[in-house]
């Protein structure tokens, strides 16, 4: 505790009100008027603010600060006499008048017809989110459960921004995750979360959530990213130009107009700054103007002016259209702090304060922690409750350590009138069973989604060197090697073995190399994960988009290097034979990609994924019928069923049939006929199943591609369905 703080606290307890000292009151800031102008100029009467009496406070403050305003860069005003004195009695006597539940009263109140209509959604259609006695625990690995959130109670209502604040690690993200139904699987949750008084699942499209980390398609420009997203989410009834306009407007709202044509950039290519990426993420989620919006630290990485502008746009969205916004926030400047209607202050997962922002100061003061002069109140609250660095800081002169301060605050909050009022409002909200929340999800049709995703993915694959271009280069190099090593293979007896090996190499190793695109695919999966949870599109559209966008590239990398190897080696000359060769190669590459999709849906990390994928393919390669002839494979497991599961069997046999059928070779083995036919070699040397043609092999491979992609779809759908069941079982 430093001296100013201690002094402030002393002053608070001894002098109570220091009206003779100039103090920095948030109310006098010009931002209030800026915001109200912004709202009114948009053609909407600022009912919300008038109702809360902010306009009159503003006038008070303006008159008081008129002298100071001209001199000081910040708003330093005289002590606002309109606020209650910092004493217990004043605090206890005032609150009911100032409690900010007007919205609830108005929307749930008796005068039912007389609801406020602001913007496009009335408050009546808005979303009330309530949570009661919310506990989230996590297994610490020693059969004990560590609490992350401890019995939180609160609510969020339309037209207001609820700010969740607290030191880092206090559970802000966990609270947001649990409200949005996205807790990770190693946590358990108890308590009641209701949407409009009903139990509902909020993931997959009912709410929008801007998570703490930005997962964006790094190869796109800002304009493309937002516009593709607009096409994915906005209804088909909107025209293309309207969607474009909406995207442009949202970009301007987030102040990104100067970097619209900059690529977003990622770990390999530098693009946007962290703060700009943050704003792109917000852009994408507010495009559809969701009724319920979660923001996890939307202003991290932003300078104070940008934070203010971003938050004021979000506040405007909430106030104007009656949206419900819950945002966790680090370090709000005083201007930003004033934009919030409600504050949830957490420490170690416990509520230090939940209630209207306007009453927080009085609450702290009444418990002996008044906000010192010239300090941003939010800084003061965070300072008071951050005990992470206690060891380094000497205990305040009044002898309270931060630990004790937190205990005092947590305990007194539980017995405070504010808490009781919160509970009253909460039960009022819960009693009023309102309409169920319709899925916000995408309103675009499935076909549109598939088309947009195909186009977006195609552009991404084109720009991402690691996806296909690098592989093309490696393939060309490898095929040159194959082509020169087996150059002009001829028709000698020895060429039989050489042909077999060369074709095996193509079937096994060239397809194996399709793993190379896996890291890029994992990035795609992350974006897919985020967008799906926010309901932009489903698994089906993703699979279709990914499949169709990859076809042209796979065709290029199977045709060009394939031709190089094929003709350099001098395999069967006819075009039909080459077409079959290239098609089998193409389908095998697609198959390996599908296999890697399945791996990506199970293994979360790209390094683990590559290892797993390589392992699976290694096994398949080994029992595909080349390294050990099919008849020699041990019958249990390896022959049945592994030999039939391994796609190398079909690839190999397809290649062999394609090449050997119709050829004859001289026989140098003693005692046999002078020549051997390709058919004989296929049956006896390679032990190929000759009951069906090479085209059937190709068809089987193609069928496997479809099956694998369906499996990917199935796994994701199953995980989605099964996870909540396991969670529910775990919570018992
Ligand atoms: N899934 C989890 N497993 C283990 N610990 C977790 C998990 N989620 C959160 N925690 C712990 O809970 C605390 C709160 O985390 P978080 O909500 O991310 O904090 P913040 O307020 O910074 O967003 C941290 O100490 C974190 O380590
Ligand atoms: Mg966090």
TrEMBL record:
One matching Pfam family: ABC2_membrane
Principal location: membrane
Coiled-coil regions listed: none
SMART domains: AAA
Entry's localization field: Membrane
Domain of life the protein comes from: Eukaryota
InterPro entries: AAA+_ATPase, ABC2_TM, ABC_transporter-like_ATP-bd, ABC_transporter-like_CS, ABCG_dom, P-loop_NTPase, Plant_ABCG
Swiss-Prot/TrEMBL keywords: ATP-binding, Membrane, Nucleotide-binding, Transmembrane, Transmembrane helix, Transport
Membrane topology: Multi-pass membrane protein
Record-annotated ABC transporter domain positions: 116-373
GO CC annotation: membrane
Gene3D superfamilies per UniProt: P-loop containing nucleotide triphosphate hydrolases
Gene Ontology molecular-function annotations: ABC-type transporter activity; ATP binding; ATP hydrolysis activity
Biased composition (Basic and acidic residues): 1-18
Chain positions covered by the region annotation Disordered: 1-28
Positions of transmembrane segments: 468-489, 501-522, 542-569, 578-600, 606-629, 695-716
PANTHER family: ABC TRANSPORTER G FAMILY MEMBER 11 (PTHR48042), OS09G0472100 PROTEIN (PTHR48042:SF19)
Family: Belongs to the ABC transporter superfamily. ABCG family. Eye pigment precursor importer (TC 3.A.1.204) subfamily.
Protein name: ABC transporter domain-containing protein
